[in-house]
């Protein structure tokens, strides 16, 4: 997809590492994430992670009790990175001059990009820590924050919405976009009409759907 002027400055940020120990932990988690993307959690061993990161197996166990503890730390890092990205993208100043279509396009493109870059690793880690439901609850809370932030940005431009109930309609449109993203990205779902098109076509189709539903003012109007 072409570069989006509104989201080109958004990045999957990680906190700067200060100490040698923190740098080592980050390198081990980076290696684990790469391996999870390549072959999944079951096939990834502590020895694999150590080898990929360039450390000894003993060094891994010095920083993490076992593989599960490393995966838990990786899940927390992913979650906090997503939360930081949400906060960054929620800044109204970033979207000065943007229209509702721009907001939705940014939401779709950033979500697709994150899934392509980190989705397999996140799925593998989530499965490995599935017996800790509080983690899923925390992640769901962050997703809720994302929805509320996007809704707030959209409703700040409610004069573009021609629907008779703009607030309810905007919330419904965001939920429909989220459902379309899940249908496209979740390998368990078999919605071929959404999965078979390329990302650019998917974004255009989704934008057309919500634009028609919300009766958005044409570009250049207002």
TrEMBL record:
Domain of life, per lineage: Bacteria
Keyword GTP-binding: no
Keywords, comma-separated and alphabetical: DNA-binding, Transcription, Transcription regulation
UniProt DNA-binding residue ranges: 45-64
One MF term in the entry's GO annotations: transcription cis-regulatory region binding
Stretches assigned to the HTH tetR-type domain: 22-82
Gene3D superfamilies: Tetracycline Repressor, domain 2
Keyword Cell cycle: no
Record-linked InterPro entries: Homeodomain-like_sf, HTH-type_TetR-like_transc_reg, HTH_TetR
Pfam hit, one: TetR_N
PANTHER family: HTH-TYPE TRANSCRIPTIONAL REGULATOR BETI (PTHR30055:SF234), HTH-TYPE TRANSCRIPTIONAL REGULATOR RUTR (PTHR30055)
Name of the protein described by the UniProt record: TetR family transcriptional regulator
């Amino acid at each position: 997809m072409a570069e989006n002027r509104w989201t080109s400055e958004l990045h999957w940020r990680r906190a700067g590492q200060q100490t040698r120990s923190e740098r080592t932990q980050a390198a081990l988690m980076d290696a684990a994430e790469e391996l999870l993307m390549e072959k999944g959690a079951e096939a990834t061993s502590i020895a694999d992670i150590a080898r990929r990161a360039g450390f000894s197996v003993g060094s891994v166990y010095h920083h993490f009790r076992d593989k599960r503890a490393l995966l838990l730390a990786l899940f927390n890092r992913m979650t906090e990175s997503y939360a930081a990205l949400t906060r960054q993208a929620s800044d109204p100043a970033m979207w000065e001059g943007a229209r509702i279509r721009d907001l939705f396009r940014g939401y779709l493109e950033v979500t697709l990009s994150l899934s392509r870059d980190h989705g397999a690793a996140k799925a593998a880690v989530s499965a490995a820590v599935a017996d800790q439901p509080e983690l899923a609850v925390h992640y769901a809370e962050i997703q809720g924050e994302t929805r509320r932030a996007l809704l707030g940005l959209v409703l700040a431009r409610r004069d573009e919405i021609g629907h008779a109930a703009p607030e309810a309609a905007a919330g419904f449109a965001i939920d429909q976009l989220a459902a379309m993203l899940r249908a496209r990205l979740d390998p368990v779902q078999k919605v071929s009409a959404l999965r078979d098109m390329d990302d650019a076509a998917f974004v255009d189709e989704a934008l057309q759907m919500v634009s028609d539903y919300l009766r958005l003012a044409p570009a250049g109007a207002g």
